[in-house]
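Much of our argument rests on the idea that a fold can be written as discrete symbols. This step matters because it turns folding into a mapping between discrete strings. The record that follows shows the chain in one-letter code together with its fold in token form.
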Amino acid sequence: MAHEHHHHHHEEENETRSSLIRIVVAAVLLVAAVTIEKKTNLATWQLLLVYLVPYLVAGWDTLKEAAESIAHGEALDENFLMSVATLGALGIGFLPEAATQFPEAVFVMLFFQIGELFEGIAEGQSRKSIAHLMDICPDTANLEKDGEVAVVHCEELRPGDMIVIKPGEKVPVDGIVEEGSSSLDTVALTGESVPRKIGQGDEILSGCVNLSGVLRVKVTRKFGESTASRILELVEHASENKSRSENFITRFAKVYTPIVVAAAVLLAVIPPLFGGEFSTWLYRALMFLVVSCPCALVLSVPLAFFGGIGGASRKGILVKGSNYLEALSRMDTVVFDKTGTLTEGVFEVVAVHPEIIEEKELLHLAAHVERFSTHPIAASLRAAYPEENDDCIIEDVQEVSGKGISATVNGRRIHVGNSAMMEFTGTQWHPCEKAGTVIHVSQEGTYLGHIVISDRIKADAAQAIEGLRNLGVSKTVMLTGDHEDVAREVAAETGVDEWHAGLMPADKVNRVEELIASKQDGSSLAFVGDGINDAPVLARADIGIAMGALGSDAAIEAADVVLMDDKPSKVALAARIARRTLRIARENTWFSIGIKVLVLLLAAFGVATMWMAVFADVGVTVLAVLNSMRALK
């Protein structure tokens, strides 16, 4: 893939260079032709031959493409309009009552070429920003075989191969670190500048840059299936999902061009029947044709969307098509999953409430009893009391299903579990006012206290909800399978408008369907989830936004917008980028239509000159294309 891009890039550069040379040569020849006309007294046909030289140098491509499209039965494109108008202007010179229009015809063609050159450069720029993304894939990798390291093309790597990644190198394919530790720069994938630490046993994704240590990595995916390749594919194919504005423009151009050609013919034929001068009206009709070229529209609107998608991908936001950009800009209801989206999905001890012993002693006993359990809650207890390798003697560990665990610690029988465990051992316990999972601890019927474990809320969760509100999103909703009290506390801290707790995946889909049914016309509903179990809901919402998708294939497949890191605040950023892109596309539409209509009217009444006509076409296109470039930033 990377090779194709380098190749493509060179081709583009060569094309630009040859266009530029052609334009300069044609301009010099045009000046020479004008000088010859002034200095000599040539016949009209001799002058035509003199002017044909610069005309053909500048316009050969355009004439060729016009001829090709006529051959394919698709006559009415901009090349056709330009060719007819300029050949017509050359022809007018032979009418007895007309002044020759030779220099104008050549100049129109020359200016058209300059416009095409600018369009090419602008499009190249927005492609380059996406190619900047493309650079996340290196071309080669260091393959280790029988103790020897050889440089091979990335496409040759297979799962199970061992590769060496040196400091400063890009990670070519996804894999698992077998040896070494380092920090990774993930900015190309996530838009985040803070390096990530990585060590033995960790998954490593293609597209990151290895910053400090040498890593030996076992390949888990082929080059084409690796994270970076899939991201590039998504961005490349984004242009296939067209937005309503783009579809409108394609349809508009199909209907519009035949109407304009018919109008121009009528303009040339009807007034002379009523005594108008034929050459004057023919000239106006030709001008009408030049002005009416819809290039500015046809080019600049898709380019604005292309730029918006490129700009978003630089921030670690992948939008799978311009239709989703449009939906993002109309987003009015945002539904969040709780665990892993608004919260970290990491449990930790948030409070220790002892009754008759010290805090540390209470944690010590609980961590020892839970020492061998694999439950996430046990893991968070052990994390809170890491000094578990002391010389305590733990014997006779028994698990009571659905209630908890008991064990003998240094000869004392300790019970750790939920309130049912306390009832089971006949212990007087009392509830806690803090939300979260409460773990009670007792010793042979005596209550020792409790520990509260809870999921951490993400640092920018409240800011994410606030950001959406500032954008005018009218409703934010949180759905979770968790308990009521936990949901209530998270909702209070983040500031969502409404929440629903205790839901199964199917219930989430039903809730989203209810919300879709109740929203206003024209607005869209987004669902933000973190992946695996959210795939059905992501697919059902108007826009499915997958968070922290660095690794979750199901989410990348099901979602329409993919946020590469774990920050919910990126949702508001995505909406801002989308709105700005649409604003630019709208500006282009009204600007180009406005100027065109104005000059068309002037042309019909004979006020406009061929030069104005050319500005209305090429000048407007260049300005609109430059405006579209703003979407990249």
The CA atoms of residues 428 and 618 lie 85 Å apart. The two ends are 25 Å apart (CA to CA). The longest helix spans residues 2-39.
